[in-house]
């Protein structure tokens, strides 16, 4: 009724019913305040909040940029990788969505428990392989069992990408990705329960003239220990985190123990290359420093003080006279 347009006669009848007490305004409000029912599929449980999904998106947008640079250098061709979607779905649905024969990297991410997947579309995989073998980057979608040489080449390529993944995740957790296996048939993957929620990050990948998808599958059971770290509050706290007094004292103590070279400069002069080449034992080089002028003391090649030379016991010493103006006293 709320979405209908009433005629004038219907409005008059409604006002008449209210005035005679046949209907009250409260009854009308109760009708409008009916509860809205939302369908919930227990087989497709949403385990991550929108805030956490946005954090995962930011992480893998950074990963995509790093991976673009890395693959461009290794393949020596145009590469562009971008995040196109981040969804949470059941693991079984992810397995059904990828080709029956494809390239799947299974790797561990200590200290987190469990495995994550990186699925590479056959078009992209064979384009990469062709480039690494010296070809133009042509591709075909018919994936057979990889030979030992092809497996080794692809394994080396994607193991190098783990450095990019490690860098992308370092603001949340320090992981150490390690390749477990390289699989071509997703039906053989029995990592987790079919109904377990996973986050799938889809990366649109362009290599030369070939286009395809790279999908990263992150099971909830793997990310569960660090799920609180994916909130905006954690990011803000991490960015504003200050050192504790104990940490500050430790840093100051270590800095005070640092060794610096201290040089008392007796003087300097300039000679020609010809004079330098004809120098012999016993030659005297006059300096531009007068004997009654103070010497210069340098700390780490930076002029700091004027000094006068002397002796302390049986050792040579220098007495500080004045600081040098512009000698970076605050450093």
From TrEMBL:
Residues 254-324 form the Flagellar motor switch protein FliN-like C-terminal domain. InterPro entries: CheC-like_sf, Flag_FliM, FliN-like_C, SpoA-like_sf. It is found in: Bacterial flagellum basal body; Cell membrane. It comes from the Bacteria. GO terms for biological process: bacterial-type flagellum-dependent swarming motility; positive chemotaxis. The keyword Membrane applies. Keywords: Bacterial flagellum, Cell membrane, Cell projection, Chemotaxis, Cilium, Flagellar rotation, Flagellum, Membrane. One of its GO terms (cellular component) is bacterial-type flagellum basal body. Its main location: other. Pfam families: FliM (PF02154), FliMN_C (PF01052). It is a peripheral membrane protein. GO terms for molecular function: cytoskeletal motor activity. Belongs to the FliM family. PANTHER family: FLAGELLAR MOTOR SWITCH PROTEIN FLIM, YOP PROTEINS TRANSLOCATION PROTEIN Q. This is Flagellar motor switch protein FliM. The lineage of its organism: Bacteria, Bacillati, Bacillota, Bacilli, Bacillales. The gene is fliM.
């Amino acid at each position: 009724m709320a979405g209908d347009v009433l005629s004038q006669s219907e409005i008059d009848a409604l006002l008449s019913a209210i005035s005679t007490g046949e209907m009250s305004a409260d009854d009308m409000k109760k009708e409008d305040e009916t509860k809205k029912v939302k369908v919930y599929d227990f087989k497709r449980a949403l385990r991550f909040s929108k805030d956490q999904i946005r954090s995962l998106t930011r992480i893998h947008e950074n990963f995509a940029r790093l991976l673009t640079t890395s693959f461009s250098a290794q393949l020596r061709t145009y590469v562009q990788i971008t995040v196109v979607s981040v969804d949470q779905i059941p693991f079984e649905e992810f397995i059904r969505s990828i080709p029956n024969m494809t390239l799947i990297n299974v790797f561990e991410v200590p200290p987190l428990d469990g495995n994550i997947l990186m699925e590479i579309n056959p078009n992209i995989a064979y384009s990469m392989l062709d480039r690494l073998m010296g070809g133009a980057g042509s591709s075909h979608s018919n994936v057979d069992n990889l030979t030992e040489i092809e497996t080794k080449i692809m394994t080396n390529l994607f193991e190098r990408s783990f450095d990019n993944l490690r860098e992308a995740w370092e603001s949340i957790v320090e992981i150490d990705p390690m390749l477990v296996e390289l699989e071509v048939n997703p039906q053989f993957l029995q990592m987790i329960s079919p109904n377990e929620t996973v986050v799938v990050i889809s990366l649109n990948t362009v290599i030369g003239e070939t286009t395809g998808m790279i999908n990263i599958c992150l099971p909830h059971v793997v990310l569960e220990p660090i799920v609180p770290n994916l909130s905006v509050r954690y990011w803000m706290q991490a960015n504003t985190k200050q050192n504790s007094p104990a940490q500050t004292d430790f840093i100051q103590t270590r800095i005070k123990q640092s060794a610096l070279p201290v040089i008392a400069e007796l003087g300097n002069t300039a000679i020609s290359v010809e004079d330098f080449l004809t120098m012999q034992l016993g030659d005297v080089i006059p300096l531009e420093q007068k004997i009654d002028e103070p010497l210069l003391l340098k700390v780490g090649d930076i002029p700091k003080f004027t000094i006068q030379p002397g002796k302390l016991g049986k050792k040579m010493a220098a007495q500080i006279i004045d600081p040098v103006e512009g000698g970076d006293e605050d450093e």
